[in-house]
Amino acid sequence: MKTMTIVASVLLYCGAAGSGVTGSAAGSMAAGSMARRHTCNPDGGAAVKAGSQDKASTLSNLVRSLGSSDPNARATAACQLGKMHAAAEPAIPSLIKLLADTTVVDFNGCDDQQNFGRHSGDPDDQETVGKVAAVALSQIGKAAIDPLIEALRAPEVAARANSAFALGLVHDERVVEPLVGALSDGDFHVRKMAAWSLGLAGDSRAVGPLAGALKDPEWQVRSNAAWSLGLKGDSSSVEPLVAALSDQNARVQSMAAWSLGLKGDNRAVEPLVAALGSQDEHVRSQAAWALGLKGDNRAVDGLMAALKDQSGHVRSQAAWALGLKGDQRAAQALADAMKDEDAHVRKQASWALGMIMMRGGDFSGLNIDTSQIKVRKK
């Protein structure tokens, strides 16, 4: 009888809410609707339970797919687990095991989580199942950090490298010291990834070790170390980066120039001017870009000379840099560059002359057709 009374009371309450006994008609209908959806649904508990069961079933199926013989199926399952974030914590041990999977995949199964290798410190890196698993672990979050740190000691090189990669994506201060330790790993793939991840960590504790990594025997490690010092390195990183401009590898030189451009330190100006004479056009281009960010006019003569570089990209960067400086001395050289065979160089030269004009540049006595100069309106 007691049970019947309770059931009857619930039914009466639901009927009252659904019929809108109180308030305006519109308010009653809204209240009734909400009551039916959230308060009086006799199957609500069953629906929640079913939803939980569905999630558990999905999680179980995805974890099972991590062991598939099809590498794309493994990668897709890992990616989908990453999208579940903290709800996928039970899958962490299985994903950790997958870090050692070096199978290359043409991965198209998880929408926006594609081509991780292109963003992990080396554009030549290929997408692997292990790397997809690393990203998934980083998306799961804090619970994955300790297992990832432990994986830095795994016997497989790929597992250690992918763990270092994942730790760079989680943004937690606990990862810094383990990653610094990984800079001494016996395999350069691990050191390379640790150097890259320390740049994302953005922690001052990494500056000294990264400066030391600029002397690593492998250029990939040195390049990533230079990149990371550009993101975080303080003034103590300027001299090591200046030294890296003379590295035997052009990619390291180019990355060092990029990083020096981000430093508000004029000690780099003369070395960057010297880098304009590099045999590699990418280094020259990067040096010109970096000099444009320096508030120092010692670079003007070198940049004017770079307007005659054999590479159109270098000439374009030089014109851009001179525009930022707004130095009157560059006006005639920029005017000559407006006749360049490269359309982008001409466009940048016109823009640069406009910047000089905006700063009150006087072109009288110079052979400059000011009608061709585009001045940005305030």
Percent in strands:
under 5%
Number of H/I helices: 20
Helical proportion, percent range: 55-70%
Q: What is the mean pLDDT?
A: 84
Query: What would you report as the Rg, rounded to the nearest angstrom?
Result: 30 Å
Q: Could you give the distance between the termini? A: 83 Å
Poorly predicted runs are: 1-42, 113-118
Textual characterization of the structure:
The radius of gyration is 30 Å and the shape is elongated. Residues 1-42 and 113-118 have low confidence and may be disordered. The N and C termini lie far apart (83 Å). The protein has helices spanning 2-19, 25-39, 44-65, 71-83, 92-98, 129-140, 145-151, 157-169, 176-182, 188-201, 207-213, 219-231, 238-244, 250-261, 269-275, 281-292, 300-306, 312-325, 331-337, 343-358. The relative contact order is 0.05. Helix 6 runs parallel beside helix 8 (157-169), helix 7 (145-151) packs antiparallel against helix 8 (157-169) and helix 12 (219-231) packs parallel to helix 14 (250-261). It contains 20 helices and no strands. With 378 residues, it is mostly helical. The protein has a domain at 8-37.
Task: Describe the SSE topology.
Layout: H1 2-19, H2 25-39, H3 44-65, H4 71-83, H5 92-98, H6 129-140, H7 145-151, H8 157-169, H9 176-182, H10 188-201, H11 207-213, H12 219-231, H13 238-244, H14 250-261, H15 269-275, H16 281-292, H17 300-306, H18 312-325, H19 331-337, H20 343-358
Helix pairs in contact: 1-2, 3-4, 4-6, 5-6, 6-8, 7-8, 8-10, 9-10, 10-12, 11-12, 12-14, 13-14, 14-16, 15-16, 16-18, 17-18, 18-20, 19-20
